[in-house]
Amino acid sequence: MPEYRSLREGIPMLEACMTPDLASEITLQPVRRHGVDAAILFSDIVLPLYAAGIGLDIVPGTGPVVTNPVGDAADVAALPELDAGQVTPVADTIGLLIRELGETPLIGFAGAPFTLASYLVEGGPSRNHERTKALMHSDPKTWHALLEKLAETTLEFLRVQLRAGVDAVQLFDSWAGALSLRDYREFVLPHSRRIFEGIAEVSDVPKIHFGVGTGELLGAMRNAGPDVVGVDWRVGLDEAATRLRAAEPAAGAPVVQGNLDPAVLFAGWDAVEREVRRILDEGGRVDGGHIFNLGHGVLPTTDPEVLTRIVELVHTTTAQR
Amino acid sequence: MPEYRSLREGIPMLEACMTPDLASEITLQPVRRHGVDAAILFSDIVLPLYAAGIGLDIVPGTGPVVTNPVGDAADVAALPELDAGQVTPVADTIGLLIRELGETPLIGFAGAPFTLASYLVEGGPSRNHERTKALMHSDPKTWHALLEKLAETTLEFLRVQLRAGVDAVQLFDSWAGALSLRDYREFVLPHSRRIFEGIAEVSDVPKIHFGVGTGELLGAMRNAGPDVVGVDWRVGLDEAATRLRAAEPAAGAPVVQGNLDPAVLFAGWDAVEREVRRILDEGGRVDGGHIFNLGHGVLPTTDPEVLTRIVELVHTTTAQR
């Protein structure tokens, strides 16, 4: 959105996340422009690591770059954990938002331990996650110690958001789809579950879990304990719901969310409308309904007008049900 | 491999592919060093496009960069198709290899139409394939015209390889896993099937099909007509075989191949051995057996010694069966 680019001009990402009036204004922009049903806290996956004192920077065009990547047990032992006081600006941002948003709910946001670990071990974004996978397979003890620490940091970050008043939380495991189900269950699931359990201990807000390319992992992700599971465009909502229901226990499967391929937003309105209607149809057939959403983040060059029309179409169509 | 880096030093990728004594020597290197059971023709996915006269270059660290990306029907109409005479050096490479390889079979190689189209439409490697997906959804007629041309080029390239004497062919659809099953069936499958049908018209060599992250697509990829389907590490060989068998017709499902995560090769020998044995166990339980392979290409910084030990372990273990 042009208004976002204009606000962010000259301000580094992590600084923007830690500046309450700026971060709250950015959070409000899509609500004002598109009329979406909820706001999502403007933040970044690596923010709690940065706030905890881990040397890292978000380099435009590259992504997060970690000054001293984590390689062994000593590195893990030296890794600081987040203290609530280090993210006071995030709590202040949420305070400002709660006053502005009125009836519109605010969704909190944090990265899941595996995705954070990949950034720390690789030193930045990685296509193949080879150092991360090498650590988990060669030294499971160090791996689990790392993920325990990251789970505590993530949980602390989400607790701060909950105390400040968010109405739901989303745990983003961006890279989980790079793992086999076997590795996900052994090396990742216990730590993501710890976070959802920790949230449930202090709050009863809805808990959302999401990752890209996680069709094979949906049953296991359900077992982490979320109330909502987001899917990308590779698996339809009806099929995703079936896979979530196939996991134990049979009752109480999470609600499904997502499925619109962000790339389709470049294909012109006819194609977009067709896809939106297909998702509303498929999602409408799922017991317990669905939450309409993209299957991944909005791509930077997307025409914002298309998003406004999608929100209108979803609202009009679902109002007629 | 150091001997590969040494041979390639100062020689651009596409030039190396088009220089028979060099390309044949590179093809032989892993056979000599690791004792693998087959050689794979040293080539590049975009080679037939380059040979047909499409302006492109492989930029180290980036990948293929296309001078004039394809955007509309006029661009597609202007796109040259490959003529067999333009890849004579590839036929010559195969001729040299057949003489050198003796009993070791040689596998030919080409990129599938969707992956080639993505390079042409995006102008280079793409994470989200948004221009490609926009074209397929907004202008299906132009999309299908583009894929028909690319299928003809690929088929011509493989026919040249078959006439020169390759013992099998592999069709690589690197990016197919970015698509939903619905889009794959409508926009990609007919064109990949055309290639396998075209090969079957002139030869009865085994036909291998592979893509990364294609767990959702395996049944459809089978319907393209391959004899072997490669899978990455996200789906086990037994599960992959089940999905291939679930597609119609029930009889004659393809053989499965692959499954070792190339990232695991960085985790030390104990972890590698565990994974290799697991794959041999799972693959050994599949009716019709399996072909041992990595689940994707060897990563550049892999220790070649690990690959040699893997080949030894696979040979020793399977000899005892």
Automatic annotation (TrEMBL), chains A, B:
Purpose of the protein: Catalyzes the decarboxylation of four acetate groups of uroporphyrinogen-III to yield coproporphyrinogen-III.
Catalytic activity: uroporphyrinogen III + 4 H(+) = coproporphyrinogen III + 4 CO2
Assigned keywords, A-Z: Cytoplasm, Decarboxylase, Lyase, Porphyrin biosynthesis
Pathway(s) this gene product operates in, as recorded in its UniProt entry: Porphyrin-containing compound metabolism; protoporphyrin-IX biosynthesis; coproporphyrinogen-III from 5-aminolevulinate: step 4/4
Domain of life: Bacteria
Name of the protein this chain belongs to: Uroporphyrinogen decarboxylase
The species this protein was found in: Saccharopolyspora halophila
Chief localization: cytoplasm
Gene: hemE
